Structures are given as structure tokens and as C-alpha cells.
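REVIEWER CHECKLIST
Item 1: Sequence provided? yes
Item 2: Single chain? yes
Item 3: Sequence as submitted:
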Amino acid sequence: MLPTLLDVQASVGLALVSHLFYANYEPSAPTVLAVYLVGSLSYLFLAATSHPSSSPFDWIVSLAVLQTAYTASLLSSIAAYRLFFHRLRSFKGPSSLALSKWAWVPTDLAGQRPAKVTSLHATYGDVVRVGPRELSINDVGAINQILGGQSACRKGPWYTAAHGGKGPRSLSLHVTIDTGDHRSRRRIWDAGFSVAALRSYEAQLRQTTRKLLTQLDARTGGEVAMDQWCQFYAFDVMSELGFSRSFDLIGKGSFSKPIELLEGAMQAIMVLGAVPYLSAVARVAPNPIKDFEDFTEEALRERVGRSAEKKRGDDDRADIFTHLLGEDKATGWKHTWNELNADAGLVVVAGSDTTSSVLAMVIFHLVKHPDVLERVRKELHDVFGHDYEEEEHDLDFDKLAKECVWLNAVLNETMRLYPPVASGLQRESPSGASSSLVLNLKHSASTVVVPPATILSVPTTALHHDPRNFSPSPDAFRPERFVDPSKEERFEAAAFMPFGYGPTGCVGKKLAWMEMRLMLANFIGRFDANFAPGFDPEKYVRECIKDTFTMTRTAPIRMVLSRRAR
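Item 4: Structure as written out by the authors:
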């Protein structure tokens, strides 16, 4: 049996009704799949009862014809609407991105979203349509209006994908969308990065730095993967300061479970972020995000167990979870277990993956630019004395922050070239017929009227490499631009946001600065470094730096270290 013309027409009509329903209510992916499956099974049942003489093969063929008509009509309707009738139809951008976010998946798998977005802005201008209902705004004037504390925008659907369909009390601070919840939780987090808390972490930072230097000392004269040692260092720092336990990657000197799980999870998050409605499906299937969460939950259980023992009289060394296990005194907010587990993952990701990437690329550029390295080294000698290498682990944190201008400039310039979160952060404008958002753009001295319920992003990499913000040579490594910005052709301080922006900016940036300054000052004082034979730094920048939400690399930065003469 074959479906009649009326059956096919009914499928087409149902597709149009489905499009109208989906556009207004946006059901979850599991709901859509369930309805599709129930509808198909219902048709097979009706076919079997109304045409009992036909074979099951005939019923399946008939269903396939109707499904094809339904799917083709639905996709055609969606395509026509998005290209010709959508509220963003007047904004420029590639048709493929206007049709579907699936067009981003190959780019995200290749880790090239920041480069792609920068290229799109060069082609289409400061406002580009990068999704069916998404705009990328490459203008410094839009930053505060989209990401600032007084903005009417809220976190967009990327954050839904990142938490994988978990309930509202099962989210990390980073993906918490409700502003009231975020505010209460942020106050708890802030206590873990207060001046007093940071002081309490100094001794552990020095100890972990000493362990790293000892291991690198033992490997002088041979080839080392410098970026991997930066990862080992950052992971061990964060495990000690986050959970009062060490993953001991420095001691092992090799990749182990934490890094492997994290890299798999970050790649999955990047791809799911392009197609957020898949996150709920991924949540019920084996995936690297769940594996990573299982690992962090194990670390958290051990940490909470030790906390209970310490309450019975053992000595308690303060760490970040000392504060996260407390409550917000203003509201009485206290984390649920699932929130603590989600925050355990955030501690690992935000506290290690981003920091290690910056450290690796700073060392890369210092080796590539020996003149800059010598200026930083001279400054360190001027501040701490020519024999400061003798007491490397006792460098004063305040002096590193306030007196080491070139050291800080090198860090800033590296984060400008390679922002830790390179693609920028996503927001959604208010919904409702009268909720258009008016953005005042600085560079073009114009306004843009953003329709309601539009997803917005400010592309960090594009901003950092825009000659209207940083000139001369915005793509070049020039730390002097941060030494004396007044001498630059262009230096738009507001466009520099490596740690995010506004009330949702990086809560741990002060700790990250302490960690990076201490490690680099000690490394520069103790070692000379050269690229290993056969290593091509220009090719490395072109081919091996990728974006998987945080910046990562596809090959090691191979170097040969030697101990500096005293």
C-alpha cells in the first residue's frame, strides 16, 4: 500500500503546524523525539488495523513516504522563514549560519570559531548574523550594554547546553542563569577569593612552584613539552587550593585521568554549545562530560569527608571549598550537593585549563622574543636583586603585582592575543513584543536595534585583534603597549576583557594572577629556554592553537631548558 495524495497533503500540513508550534514554544529535544516516535508507531498501528492484508514492509514504506514529506516540508518551511521572514533577516551574514547552528559544528570540531568569527566581521561588518536568531557584535561600545551589571540581557542557551539539561539546583556558578541565585552564590565564592583567603593560599602556591622547578631542573638538557608542564602545574595548584589534595601531576610528569577527562569534556561542551537542544539527549548517553563530572564528584566526596574528620579535631587548612561549603550570610543560601559537584568541575576547569594555556603561551613568546625576555629578567633583578633566584619561592606577591611592569605587560599581551575564553560569552536580549534593545556602537557612532529574544555575543578575539582597539600591529606580540598605553596609536582599555566582564566575570582572576606571576618569575630567573630542534613556532601558531571553549593546543610546545649561570 502507498499513502494517498490526501495523506501526503496531511503530512505537509502537519509539518507547517509543527513549525508554528516549535517556533512559539521550543520544546526540548527529548520531547520532539518522543512525539516523533509516538506518531510513527501510531501510524504503523493504524496501518496494520486498517490494511490488515498489506505486509509490514508496505506499512513501513508508507510511513517512510509520509515521514519524508513531513520532514522535507518542515525543513523547507523553517528555511524559508529564517531567510526571508525572520526578525533578523535584515542583518548581514552567511546564509548557512542563518539557516542552522549545525553549520558551526565543523568549525567547532576544528577549534576555529574565534578565527571564523573574526573573518566574518572583516567581511560583513561590526554586526553579523551568526545563527538563526543570533548576532555577533564586534564593538567596544556594546560590551557594557550586553554584559554589564545593568544590562537587561541574561545568559543565553549556550549555558543550557553546558549544564546538559540538569535541574536549576544542579548547576555550577558559571552556568547559573537566574540572576538572584547567581548573586547569592557569587557572594559565597567571593569569600574564597578575599584578600585574607588569597594570603592563606600563598604558602601552598610557593610549595607547588618549588616542586615544578625541581622537576624541570631534573630535565635540563633534554626536550620537554613546556605546555604540558604548565598544565601539570596549574592542575596541581588548583587541586591543592580547591580540594586540599594534590593530583600530583608534577610528580608523575605525565598526563593522567584529570587532564584526559577535562579535554574530552571541553570538546563536547564546545560542540553541544552550537546545537544546545542536543544537550538533554547527550545527558542520557555515555559522554565525556559525565565522565568528568564523575571524577570531580569523587574528589568532592573525599574533600567533604576530610572536612567532617577535621571538625572532630584535626588541623584544617583552608581551601576554596572551605568557603563553598558555607552559606551566604545575606540570604541564607546554601549549596545543594549537586551544585557543589557542579562547582567542583568549575574549580578544575576555570582554575587550571585557562591558567595553563596562558602560561604556556607566555613562555612560548618569551622564547620567540628574547629581547622581551631580557627586559623582563632585568626588571626582576631590579625589583628583587640580582640573586633573587637563590630564594625563588619567597618572591613577594605584592611586588610582583605592583612593581613588575614588564612581567604584567607580557601576561596581558599574551591574554590579548590568546584570550583564555576566546569566543566570547553569550547573552539573550529581553523577550516580548516591546522589548527591543538599542545598542550604541562606538566605532561607527551609530545605533543598532536588536529585536526581542535575540542571542548576542561580543567576540573577545575579534575585539582584541581589532586595529581600532589596539594599534599598531594588533596581531603582533608587543607587550610595550601595556607598559605605556599613552604612546600607542590605539589602546582601547575597555576592549580588553580576558577574564570576562561584569558581575559574571571570572571570580578567581586575582588567584590566577598570583599563580601566573609567581611561576613565570621563578621560571625566568632559573632557566634559559630554546625551541627544540625542528620546532617551527610560526607553523605552531598557524596550525596548533585551537578553541574548545578554552584555548588549547593540538601538539606540544617542545623546548630544551638549561639552568642559568649564577
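Item 5: Key structural point noted by reviewer: The CA atoms of residues 242 and 320 lie 5 Å apart.
Item 6: Recommendation: ____
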